[in-house]
Amino acid sequence: MKTTNDTAAHGGDVRLTGITKKYGSFTAVHPLDLTVPQGSFFALLGASGCGKTTTLRMIAGLEEPTAGTVHLGDQDVTALPPYKRPVNTVFQSYALFPHLDIFENVAFGLRRRGIKSVKKQVEEMLELVQLGEQARKKPHQLSGGQQQRVAVARALINHPKVLLLDEPLGALDLKLRRQMQLELKRIQTEVGITFVHVTHDQEEAMTMADTVAVMNAGRVEQLGSPADLYENPRTTFVANFLGTSNFIEAEVDSTSGSEIVLKAGGGKLMLPEARNSAPARTGGKVLLGVRPEKISLTHADDAGDIPEGRNRITGRIADSSFIGVSTQYVIDSPVCPEFEVYVQNIDRDPRLTPGAEVVLHWNPEHTFGLDAAQDIDAGVETVEEEVA
């Protein structure tokens, strides 16, 4: 899949050209062309075994590509060992030296290069990661989030062109992980160097990254900004892996101007042509997708109050879960057996309980169309996968 744009001046870009990695007969990374622009926060996102860490390790020089080249700026680094590449890597295990204090952990790279006067640089770096007052503590005296920031400071003090982050927040609890997401984004914005971040956590990638490459089975499924990937998924894998999507198997009834009319369950639904990535032939099949939070839920008794021009389907509430900020409903509908709807808890209708007849309706602009030949469940994480 081609996902790169050539530019006249590459500067601190990371450019992968035809990069491939095979282990015997198994292909971990299929031929990949990818450009990470200088100064950007770039995320490689995917489930375990998708090839994201292998790709990162090939940039770092920790894995040798089977084929293809790695450029950092205008320099071909494919054959260079890790220590000769202008990159530093931060791993999930922070690998801090337990016998050294925080100051000396950060200073380690400078001292190893024979630099005698390190005080000013180390103090500036500790201020950047907001740990100036912790300089003389040992790693075990810091929280997990603080230790992570020490690891980032130790990597950044070497002034790499690129900082590689391999699941750096995986060992932290949820609240601390969210704080660190914002912290890492702030640090990247301040130092302005290229960050390439590997994660399996969709929220993490979408919170921090300017650009996300969603990987699946050694290939990039889709590349784009978090908002673009979420609003305009081009495959069922991306639609399911980034959040939740409802899919309706529909048939093309007609096309008129900028809209496609679809038939499903005896009713008709509208799909903007600009949001359809499937062949739109009359009589052909399309997977119509809509996100749960885009849908409104109205009790069947009030169906007459729904404005004209909205997509609508009928159903019965099968289940509901109150989760504070919203109530999540599962609707049994003729066009989709388990249609999910998230309704913000602003004015709760007490009639919306399991067994109630309802109408689901939404703005057609929030509908997207995908090729019906795809697996509807691609990218859906199972409990077994999460445990693994």
Automatic annotation (TrEMBL):
UniProtKB keywords: ATP-binding, Cell membrane, Membrane, Nucleotide-binding, Translocase, Transport
**Every ABC transporter domain range:** 14-242
Enzyme superclass (EC): translocase
Q: Which GO terms describe its molecular function?
A: ATP binding
Q: Which domain of life is it from?
A: Bacteria
Q: What is its EC number?
A: 7.6.2.11
> So what does this thing catalyse?
ATP + H2O + polyamine-[polyamine-binding protein]Side 1 = ADP + phosphate + polyamineSide 2 + [polyamine-binding protein]Side 1
- Name the CDD domains for this protein: ABC_PotA_N
Subunit: The complex is composed of two ATP-binding proteins (PotA), two transmembrane proteins (PotB and PotC) and a solute-binding protein (PotD).
Tell me, in a sentence or two, what this protein's role is.
Answer: Part of the ABC transporter complex PotABCD involved in spermidine/putrescine import. Responsible for energy coupling to the transport system.
Which PANTHER family does the UniProt record give? SPERMIDINE/PUTRESCINE IMPORT ATP-BINDING PROTEIN POTA, SPERMIDINE_PUTRESCINE IMPORT ATP-BINDING PROTEIN POTA
Q: Which family does it belong to?
A: Belongs to the ABC transporter superfamily. Spermidine/putrescine importer (TC 3.A.1.11.1) family.
How is this protein named in the record? Answer: Spermidine/putrescine import ATP-binding protein PotA
Organism for this UniProt entry: Streptomyces composti
